[in-house]
Amino acid sequence: QVQLVQSGAEVKKPGSSVKVSCTASGGTINTYTINWVRQAPGQGLEWMGGIIPIFGTAKYAQKFQGRVTITADASTGTVYMELSSLKSEDTAVYFCARELGLPDWYFDLWGRGTLVTVSS
Amino acid sequence: EIVLTQSPGTLSLSPGERASLSCRARQSVTSNYLAWYQQRPGQAPRLLIYGASSRATGIPDRFSGSGSGTDFTLTINKLEPEDFAVYYCQQYGSSPVTFGPGTKVDIK
What we know:
The complex is a heterodimer of chains A (120) and B (108).
Chain A: E1 3-6, E2 10-12, E3 18-25, E4 33-39, E5 46-51, E6 58-60, E7 68-73, E8 78-83, E9 92-101, E10 104-110, E11 114-118
Parallel strand pairs in A: 2-11
Antiparallel strand pairs in A: 1-3, 3-8, 4-5, 4-9, 5-6, 7-8, 9-10, 9-11
Chain B: E1 4-7, E2 10-13, E3 19-25, E4 34-39, E5 46-50, E6 54-55, E7 63-68, E8 71-76, E9 86-91, E10 98-99, E11 103-107
Parallel strand pairs in B: 2-11
Antiparallel strand pairs in B: 1-3, 3-8, 4-5, 4-9, 5-6, 7-8, 9-10, 9-11
């Protein structure tokens, strides 16, 4: 059974960047859209963007344009999300989530999340 | 973007009771592309319903979804202890995908 495996928790200083990874165990994610969704403490879910690894072109939520970069390494089946110019408000759990594709654009499989803490 | 609202914010019920959760969109959701997710504390969201009314793989039949256009409902029949959680709706018919703020179902 395919599982999405994310990198471990990070603690970052304001103004720095963080890069979180997501890969699949038990299968491949190369042909699916892999999305990033974040959840601030006690808050709801917020879509940040996504990418199809074999194509490599990412799409982003307007809110994060210019500050988030989503990339993929199809050779290793790994997707990365890099968020720059970190602020305390970026403290959140960051999830990767698989989207099956047209017309199944919902998120059927989620990683366990990566806690990113931004603190001076 | 399509804004989703969920009500109530919190629903306090006892095991065995029925839960009815509402999700409303400010504009019509394309092709009723509306999903529901369950999130237990400390866990990732879990897909329950897609296409407004189709149950995801492995989801018990006490969970059902209904609605169309701008008004959608998630119903949970005979609440089990593991059903006490937060539930989010999501529209995925228009870009960007958006989520509702969530409804917490807690134990009365």
